[in-house]
Amino acid sequence: MKMKLLAASSMAASLLFASMGIASAAAFSVSCSGVPSTSSITWTAASTDGVAPVAFLWGNGSTSPVQTVSYAPGTHTITIEGTDASTTPQVASSTCSATIDTPALQPSITSFTATPSSILVGGSSVLAWVVSNASSTSLNQSIGTVSSTSVTVSPSVTTTYTLSATNPNGTATASATVTVGTTIPTGGTGGNLQERIKSLLQQIAALQTSLAQLIAARFGGTLENPPFIPPGQIGKIACIELGRNLRHGDHGDDVMKLQVMLKGDSSTGFTAEPTGFFGPITMKAMMKFQMKTGIVASSSATDGSVGPLTRGFFNRACGKGLIKHGLNNQNASSTDVDDDDDDDDDDDDNATSSSQRGNSGNKGKGNQKGGDDD
Fold it and tell me: What's the CATH fold of domain 235-368?
């Protein structure tokens, strides 16, 4: 009988508690998610169970349930903490991550020009371009794929050229038009003659641009900052002219010019700043240069002085023989080998340099007092 009374009492208590809304509390939790775009991630917080309202606190200090944060490409992680409003507040936290993909590089064309943009029939124009992020570059008008940064064209009629720069992510295009005028009659005068002169000057400018681009492609540098080209590499573009023989102790602008040339050729070992003073460093560099270029056969055949043979080598690079400079006019007691060319001289560089020592040596000694500045 007592057992039946206890069971009935327990059932009644349960019914009473249920009618009052008292039940076992479920575990409180929070979560978050991130949706990336090209440069940001939108983070969203959520909670489960617990007593509303829930206060959120992100790892970056934000308290909003939703926030958008800017990021660089890559994977980013953030924490979220939530506190419910129960009599004894429950606290829960979570971590979430999202990834912003690295954007695919698109090809781009910085510039595409035609120089000159207007020509006469029979004339030519240089198409030049600057592209980036391109795996291949091509031109229309049956030119096709091009591997350089310029091409010379000679259209017979006004023509628009379209450059296409392509990579796996897309294609960029740009256009340039070459306008072709009518042929000027051979006997034309006045305005017609001026037009022909203008056209010829434009063609010369176009050829100069094309040549400069070829040089930049071969030796480095840019059109605005052209490279140094060792003597003899591309004719007159690489030459220096010296009005006298040079040896240890000499100084002047011609020595400076020689040192600039030597510094531009890494094989000579001349790494000092040009000073215009012909010292031991310049001598050693000249010995290497003379052996490298075949002016002398061995180091024992030169002391690094610059005589008729070396000057003749430089002048050949300028497209002419050794220029007669009349050193006797500068110093009546100096001895100079006065030939129009180089290899037929009776004296080599050393002999010629030695013949000058009686006069230029004193000047050299005066300069050496301050030490070797090169």
Answer: Muramoyl-pentapeptide Carboxypeptidase; domain 1 (1.10.101)
When mean pLDDT is compared across 26-40, 120-134, 221-235, 298-312, the lowest value belongs to 221-235
Q: Which amino acid is at 174?
A: A
CB 241 within 8 A of CB 354: no
CATH architecture group of domain 108-219: Sandwich (2.60)
Picking from 68, 60, 28, 74, the residue whose alpha carbon sits closest to that of residue 44 is 68
Tokens coding 39: 């440069």
Report the alpha-carbon distance of residue 59 to residue 79 in Å, rounded.
5
Residue 318 pLDDT grade (very low, low, confident, very high; cuts 50, 70, 90): low
Say which residue, 44 or 119, is predicted with more confidence.
44
Identical fold at 27-100 and 108-219? yes
Whether pTM > 0.70 for this model: the answer is no
Q: Which CATH architecture has domain 27-100?
A: Sandwich (2.60)
Radius of gyration of the chain (CA): 42
DSSP code, position 369 = T
Residue 110: C-alpha distances to residues 131, 138, 210 (Å): 6, 15, 18
Q: What confidence score (pLDDT) does residue 312 get?
A: 85
Mean pLDDT, residues 366-373 taken together: 41
Q: If pLDDT is split at 50, 70 and 90, which confidence band does 141 have?
A: very high
- What's the rounded Cα separation, in Å, for the pair 236 and 352? 26
Quick one: tokens of 160? 């628009």
What token pair was written down for 220? 């480095």
Tokens of 28: 């409180």
Reported as type and span, the H/E element at residue 239 is none
- Banded model confidence at residue 359, pLDDT cuts 50, 70, 90: very low
Tell whether the model's pLDDT for residue 353 goes beyond 70: no
The token pair at 263 is 């510094």
Q: Taking the domains of the chain in order of start, what are their residue ranges?
A: 27-100, 108-219, 235-368
Alpha-carbon separation of residue 114 from 181, 182, 230 (angstroms): 15, 19, 30
